[in-house]
Amino acid sequence: MTALLERPAAVAPRLRRDRRRWAWGLAALAAVGWSVAGALDGVNPAGAAQVGAFAAAALSPAVDGAFLGVLATAALVTVAYAVLGTALAVLLGALGAGAAARTTWGRRRLGRLGRLATRGVLAVPRGLHEAVWGLLLVTVLGLDPWVGVLAIGLPYGAVTATVFGALLDEVPRGPYEALRAAGAGRVAAALYGLLPRAAGGLLSYACYRLECAVRSAVVLGLVGAGGLGYQLSLSFSSLRWPQVWSAVYALALLCLAADVAGRAVRRRLAAPRRRAGVLSRDRVLTAAVLGTLAAGAWSWWFLALSPASLVSARAREQVGVVLRAAWPPSADADLLRSVASAAVGTVQTSVLAIALASVGAVVVMGVAARPAGRCPPGRRLAGVLVRLALLLLRAVPAPVWALVLLFVLLPGVLPGAVALGVYTLGVLGRLAGEAVEEADAGPRAALGALGAHPVAGWLYGVAPVVAGPVLAYALHRWEVTVRDTLLVGLLGAGGLGALLASELATFDWPAVATVLAATVVLTLAVDLVGDRARRALR
Amino acid sequence: MTVRLGTATVLDGVDLTVGAGERVALAGASGAGKSTLLGVVNGTVPPSAGSVRVLGADPAALRGAALRRLRARVGTVHQHLELAGALRVVHEVNAGRLGSWPALRAAWSLVRPQGVADVVAALAQVGLADRVFDRTDALSGGQRQRVAVARVLVQQPDLVLADEPASALDPVLTERVLGLLAGPAGRGGALLAALHDPALALRHCDRVVGLAAGRVVLDAPAAALTVADLAGLYGTPA
Lengths: 538, 238
Ligand SMILES: Nc1ncnc2c1ncn2[C@@H]1O[C@H](COP(=O)(O)OP(=O)(O)OP(=O)(O)O)[C@@H](O)[C@H]1O
Ligand SMILES: [Mg+2]
Prior knowledge:
The complex is a heterodimer. By secondary structure, chain A is mainly alpha-helical. Chain A: Pfam families: BPD_transp_1 (PF00528).
């Protein structure tokens, strides 16, 4: 240095670490350590043989005509649930959006109260997983197809209402105000001044919900609502591995198809194709919308839904019985103690899952990103393989992974964490890869030009830029994972889900009410923590 | 040496040698190919035809550690700076030493900054010592440009490539920065700088190379040129 630098530094400020970020970082590390400690109980060596048999069947799935026919019918049921559930969610969402949007309430104090109240009401259906709704609805409605539709439609409706409300609030309000000033009523002004601007976003979100609904419909089957998931659990409990694999492949294909089609439509929505100067609609989009409407009508017929069974005397009576029995929720000390320990297990599972997924995503994201410029064919091939693997990981819903893992791992934190971690890696890996693709390649190239080791180039040129978005994604997925942990628990992996399943099995309604309340509080608390952490990162 | 990017031929048959101790200014209208030429020298742009020799070695024949050692001797101030932005200034400046640091030391430095005294000294030379621990994306355009210069100062390269290194700086800083970048040339290295300001080029360099549409159209000692001669390169009446 000395040759170049004649003058010593005038002032040397001290390095001040960002306390808030360090606190969050250390807290996260502590949470992971605590979760690992909770997961240290048991591997089940006796199950290893079963896993061997199970894995061996992967290459020889059942392909006899009869079983494939059954699977095809089951797939149709799943699709019908997804379509009608989404339709209901969009309907509820549109109604609820009016109640959640700032536009409706205005800026006065009363308005703020109204908005808060709506959000509070929406938080309850949102805090319960679709599968929990499914279980509750089965006890009220019996094995009616409405169970599947409502179990998807109600929680999705609540989320959709929140998102639709936010989308409407984001639209520039000039045209709306102008129409209002010209004497138009609120509804008319919203229809002409707000809706056209928001339509793309609303449609795109509805489409995303339909993709998710396919996954949810599969999962609902696992808890007994019929469809592909149900077939899977039947084959599973009778240990017919080739059939299990056929079902897994079928549902992976279904989820993949939903994923690919949904992304294509959404991309098209973001950049619709119009011929210049001619008032014409985008053919693909028109076909997608008409096709979905037709699918809705077909689903209604196929599932033989009848509104009468919803309001039948038996259903009303059941609702009454359950609600009366469930109030007041049980405050039994033993129950509260097991709720607390189950809640701890749930949090540990979700933390461990997200830690596994995040580490995995960080490891693969460099390869998963499509390289911008020229690159050797080996690198390109590795990228394709990694992206394919991630696709497969997220095509199989987490509960299926959990069922498999429960052979080798004793029920508890570990099987749920690994199952959810594997699935979430599929999602997070893709998101992280896309973040890398979006990052500017310049800084890294500049570091390469001054001789930096490739790892160092990555650390100084890419990591700082993608760290923010990737952490934000991970936090968001953590919130999702907590909900999914409940579901995996329902199937026996432990935590609040397992507790709920056992209380439901004995029809102990006051206890069920307590567990449900704990569930909602837990998901709300996790959302809150996630939100705070994201804000500290910004 | 020729460079084709896409369908365009950006550099066309450029043949240029820069000797030890020389300070060479690259002049030419916007889009003439100055940045591309600098990119060819530092290895970020591969030539489509012809060859490049840097500091007596052929980069195309080198691989791995040997290539890294050569590249560590070439320091660049990029036109668009190419700083990550989401890092503290101390790390952006330290990045100049990545050519000689093993990966592990580079990683550890992000946790516990290494060689802070040298970084502060380099920053002091460009008047930024008080911002060592600030985030780079909180700096102004000119301040960021000085961070990029400080990076080259801690790198201590033999060959300095500078692409409009003072485009966002005030007159006093401009003089200082060009003086600093010419340092290695004074010790037997070299400076190759793309400069738009003819007066600046003549004052700080020994030789001026003019580019137009990817070809060398002028190559003369600075002493033999006037500001008006250079103005011709930009298509304005002299
Ligand atoms: N990646 C690329 N692909 C295709 N063409 C490119 C690319 N990069 C640069 N060019 C073209 O090469 C030509 C020279 O670009 P270059 O950046 O070298 O010009 P320059 O002399 O540095 O201009 P300026 O003074 O504006 O920085 C331009 O016409 C530009 O459009
Ligand atoms: Mg340039």
